[in-house]
């Protein structure tokens, strides 16, 4: 969907230089520039890459927004503007993308501390809690992004919600395939008070179960009401045998970059001493 985009507040010069935003004529009578949702994602991604420095170990996210960031990192490497970068991909798809761009890769076994991770999110609440994993890579994303010093989240403004689950879209839970129906029913019962329904994620015309990079299934939870205490909800999910991981990323983001009709907004996590 096209969104009116009258000006680019935070980094207009950078956006113009990289060719993702055309500077408007000086006349105030000219209508605002209209950008698609994907173009907004690209602007947020390019802003996030400004945090990248030569010599860093980077967590490379997965999804339509993170793809733009990985492309930009590859571009800067090829231009010689970034050097000695090591990427740790969060999915097989991102691994393939990074290899095609010539980004050197490694893993958490070799680099257990990651300097910076850049990734998108499916939901961001006012406290910078996230829902991730609608692309199916939540486990590897959480492993990599949980090991980083700085986690920059990039979204367009449609991903902002009042509370986790408020979009009415999926909050994914990765589970083992064994007796998946049993696990799905138990997950749904955990959140009956929030009007939760649990559905196995499928793929293809035959409706076969979607299989993650780790060989697991995903049960998507849909909420009609606020689930309440997120820490308690997280603990309850993880205590169920058969659950591998869930898509709530709580208190993990250090910076959220939002591209919207008024420009780019950067919010940093408040540090309490």
Automatic annotation (TrEMBL):
Catalytic activity: aldehydo-D-ribose 5-phosphate = D-ribulose 5-phosphate
Molecular functions (GO terms): ribose-5-phosphate isomerase activity
GO biological process per UniProt: pentose-phosphate shunt, non-oxidative branch
This protein's UniProt keywords: Isomerase
E.C. designation(s): 5.3.1.6
Entry keyword Isomerase: yes
Pathway: Carbohydrate degradation; pentose phosphate pathway; D-ribose 5-phosphate from D-ribulose 5-phosphate (non-oxidative stage): step 1/1
Catalytic class of the enzyme: isomerase
SUPFAM superfamilies from the UniProt entry: D-ribose-5-phosphate isomerase (RpiA), lid domain (SSF75445), NagB/RpiA/CoA transferase-like (SSF100950)
One Pfam short name: Rib_5-P_isom_A
UniProt xrefs under HAMAP family: Rib_5P_isom_A
NCBIfam families, per database record: PRK00702.1, rpiA
Family note: Belongs to the ribose 5-phosphate isomerase family.
The name this protein goes by in its record: ribose-5-phosphate isomerase
